[in-house]
Design a protein that fits this description.
By secondary structure, the chain is mainly alpha-helical. The protein contains two helices and two strands; from the N terminus they run βαβα.
């Protein structure tokens, strides 16, 4: 996250979150990002920018299974995410989305 780099002694704050197992689960990724933000957020600062970067991405075909992984939850989430993808494909992008994305999206990437 970034504050005003000209008015703050420490304008950048970053955190790295390592996931226990590789995942394509949107809910798990959002939860990890929110936990990371909670750990570096300082009340009272005016933030101008925030971002999330994912490192070490691999194909689901190359994912090594974990012995202690809770597969029932992962299976349940994968069915929900597949349903969301199906609805968005049929009815248009962002018909169904994770509430953590926000309802009023006033900012978008300029690419």
């Amino acid at each position: 996250i970034l504050t005003d780099r000209f008015r703050s002694a420490n304008p950048y704050r970053t955190v790295c979150i390592n996931l226990a197992t590789p995942t394509a689960d949107t809910f798990a990724l959002v939860a990890a990002a929110k936990n990371g933000l909670r750990s570096i957020f300082v009340e009272g600062l005016q933030y101008s920018k925030a971002g999330v970067v994912f490192n070490n991405l691999v194909s689901t075909n190359n994912k090594q299974q974990e012995f202690f992984c809770s597969e029932p939850q992962a299976e349940s989430n994968s069915r929900v995410l597949a349903a969301i993808d199906s609805l968005n494909h049929r009815w248009g992008k962002d018909t169904v989305f994770v509430a953590a994305e926000g309802i009023n999206k006033v900012w978008s990437m300029k690419q």
